[in-house]
Each structure stands twice: as structure tokens, then as C-alpha cells.
Amino acid sequence: MDKKKKKAIESKGYRVGSVDEFLGLSADEMEYIELKLSLSQALTKHRKKSKLTQAQLAKRLKSSQSRVAKMENGDPSVSVDLLIKSLLALGADKNSIAKAII
Amino acid sequence: MDKKKKKAIESKGYRVGSVDEFLGLSADEMEYIELKLSLSQALTKHRKKSKLTQAQLAKRLKSSQSRVAKMENGDPSVSVDLLIKSLLALGADKNSIAKAII
DNA sequence: TGACAATATGTCAGATCTGACATAATATAA
DNA sequence: TTATATTATGTCAGATCTGACATATTGTCA
Fold first, then answer.
1. If we measure between CA atoms, which residue out of B83, B30, B90, B31 comes closest to residue B60?
2. Shortest CA–C1' contact from A14: which nucleotide?
3. d(CA B87, CA A86)
């Protein structure tokens, strides 16, 4: 398990349901977090391929550097919607998004 | 273009940005809506495969029938997060979710 | 046809997410 | 090392999403 996944999963920020498993997360919750994390990592990859800093990407997205940092780190306050919109803004297409989450 | 896609795209419900194109949606916004719609359709497919009514699925999700209906119809008030969580609750895995959005 | 089941639509209070800001931590180069 | 650039973290008001409810519409079957 790599550093980012560990960080996101250990995060106390996630509001979890009632079924207790590893660290209080259900299997579905785990899968959801892993999927989000995959998109986070894809975002970092695409940003770097485009040779943009987080601040530059933030400007393009009409967002802020801090939010981009949160996106790339799988922060619980970031939605999959925002990740997908950001990936699309970086030129990712359906296929590469689909590939990222597998 | 099938009925559902047309409905979602024509929907006045979507809050759109500044770049005007077909019906006032940018290319990225279009792609995002299409991706959401693909997940909507996958949800309907999975629900029917499980032989559940919208009300039964709603109960499993701790949600409501009306929200399930909105999910399946690509309503703008439904997030990709909710669609993905619902698909996972229906037993869909990463691969089938990825396949759905291609 | 009528009765019932299933799905769709509209609304809203409460919950969650977002951009923005400040500031801390870490990298990179001189 | 010291600057400077880049990334990370914490917070919060305003925006968006959610579950729930009422109700309308559509489907199904006798």
C-alpha cells in the first residue's frame, strides 16, 4: 500500500457509516476511497505532464492552489465530481479517466 | 442521441459556465454530463439485474425513491459521488464502473 | 376500464463541498 | 546556509447536494 493511499484511508476526516471493518470503513467505503485516490493520482500525473504548478492549474480551473493540493492528496473534502471536472479540464478523455480508476 | 442523453443535456437545470457552445455548454461540461449519464444508465442496469424496485434500492442505500429516480435520470442535483457509491452498493466493482464510463 | 405498483417531478431544511484566504511545511537553487 | 518556489494544512462563508416528503405520471394486470 503506497503512501498516499495509506494517508487517505487513515484520515480521520472521512465520515463513515455503521458497518465496522478495517479502521471502521466498510468494503464499499474502502472501494470508494481507493477509486477517488486513483483519480487524485491521475490528476497529479496529468498536471505534471502539462508542466503546470498547482497554482497555475488552480487558475485554469477557477479554483485555488489549496484546493488543487487537496484534490491531489485525496482529501475527504474533495468530491469525485471535482476530480473528474478537473481531469477533463486538463484534456483527459473518458478513456483515460476510465483507465485511471481500474 | 438517445432519449435520456437528450433530456439531460436539454435540462435547464445545469448551471453552466461562460464558454458558449451548443446549448450554452462547453465541451468539458458536455463530456462531464455524458459521463454522469453513463453512470446513471449503469445504475438502472444494475438495479434491474438485482430485481429491485427504486424503492427497494433506496432503502438499501438509506435514501429515497425519488432520489433513486433522479439518479437514474441524470438529474443535475445528483453527484457522481452518489452514483458511484450507489453502484458499489449494488455490487459493481471498479472494472464495471470503468467500463460504464467509456 | 379501475385499482395498484412503479417511476417521475417539485420543494426544502440540513448536510456536504467549494473557493478563498492565511500560514505552515517542503523542495529547489544559489 | 538563505531565498524563493511549490506544495500542504486549517478554517469558514457561501454554494451545492441530499434525504425526505408530497404529489403527479406512467406502467401493469385483471
1. B90
2. C16
3. 22
pLDDT tens-place string over residues B72-101: 999 999 999 999 999 999 999 999 999 999
User: In 3D, which of B35, B27, B26 has the Cα closest to residue B79?
Assistant: B35
- The DSSP code sequence of B28-90 is HHHHHHHHHHHHHHHHHHHHHHTT--HHHHHHHHTS-HHHHHHHHTT-TT--HHHHHHHHHHT
Cα–Cα distance for residue pair A101/A38, rounded to 1 Å? 6
Q: How far apart are CA A14 and CA A8, in angstroms?
A: 9
- Using a CB-CB cut-off of 8 Å, the residues of chain A touching B102 are 94-95, 98
Alpha carbon of residue B60 to chain centroid: 18
- Please check whether residue B87 is in contact with residue B97, taking contact to mean a CB–CB distance below 8 angstroms: yes
pLDDT at A26: 84
- Residues A17-52 pLDDT 10s: 654 455 667 889 999 999 999 999 999 999 999 999
Distances (CA, A) of A57 to A43, A63, A73, B32: 10, 8, 15, 18
B42: closest CA of chain A, how far (Å): 14
